Amino acid sequence: MDPAAPPLARVLLVAGPSGSGKSRLARRLHEQHGWPLLQLDDFYHEGDAPGLPMSPLGLVDWDDVGSWDLEAAVTAIERLCRTGRTDVPRYDISTSSRTGQHVVELGGAPFVVAEGIFAADVVAPLRERGLLERAWSVHHHPWVTFARRLARDLAEHRKPPLTLWRRGHVLRRAEPGIVAAHQALGAEPVRAKIAERLAEELGSQAADAGRSRPTGGTRG
């Protein structure tokens, strides 16, 4: 992996509060454009890792970036953008443990979509490496996010219902501050539909640039 060489692809980061719709947006971009998808929440530390941050509820604070392996996430993103493939862990949120790993390949795509609640924290490292294309913080009204998050987490049995209810209200009250913090880190606050339109424009520009490149040939 040569950090001095131009990358094969650049990154579209999708951040946002838990339940804001960033995962749905990232999946749509993956399905519509064929851009590889990295789910950054798979880089959480395991539940028995030493030194995990604790919340006022007496539980591991999974909304603190200290519960997440930032260095491993940045390394995986850079490897994908520069070599065309990378290994990514599989993480089970309900058990707070890694259950395996899988390979993500670039497949010639001009962009990589990387999403997660800590995606804004990799804006600076990716910008320093020349890998960042755009970074968005997807958000809605806090009560909308609360309802969507609670429905999702209950359906997926992520944690006990009382824990989800209490955590949900903590996050609802914190949401404006979370979005502001993402903006301070370099992620643009947007609604999901706006980000989707901007991504469509970037895809069209990349396709036009690809068509305009000379293909070479023989000289007479």
From TrEMBL:
Protein name per its UniProtKB record: Uridine kinase
PANTHER family cross-referenced by the UniProt entry: URIDINE KINASE
Keyword field: Kinase, Transferase
Record lineage: Bacteria, Bacillati, Actinomycetota, Actinomycetes, Micrococcales
Domain of life: Bacteria
The keyword Kinase is annotated on this UniProt entry: yes
This protein's record includes keyword NAD: no
A single GO molecular function term of this UniProt record: kinase activity
Pfam families: AAA_33
